[in-house]
Amino acid sequence: MDDLSKEFRRDTLADFLSTLMARARELKMRNALCLYAFEGYAEYDRIWERLGSLNDVDVFGTDPYWRWRPARQDPEKHVRHFTERTAALARPLKKDVQIWIQAMRLPKGAESEIGTACRAAVGAGATHLAAWSYDGGALLDPVLSEDPSRVWAEVAAAFASLRS
User: Fold this and answer.
1) CB of 14 closer than 8 Å to CB of 35
2) pLDDT at residue 121, as a whole number
């Protein structure tokens, strides 16, 4: 894809999201935008900067899943890194920072990583946490954890510990 096409793609994404978010703002709603936790491709970095900087984005977030392709990452380091990267864009623009915590595709015995990831996100500046997938992926076979009820219990425990 040539540079003009890439610019067109960025502009189209920004215009589309801006239109939707402006309408939501008219309805007194806040806007959250989550972009995939990926780096190392210059064009995606430009998309990240452009969309995360949109005026009507109130909450900018990402989903730094540490047990995802291509390889497993250390949950504390990986989540902290992407939270810091997200906050670096969001904070100067007075936006909140949302981090999605991995609650799917976790093998039995890895559930404690959820608490580690939550603490890393909050420690690095996250103002909002969410978890994907609901119920440890029990309803979605492609993302099913080996022990979904334990995964969801860990999400609940981690979130509760951060509230107190």
Assistant:
1) no
2) 98
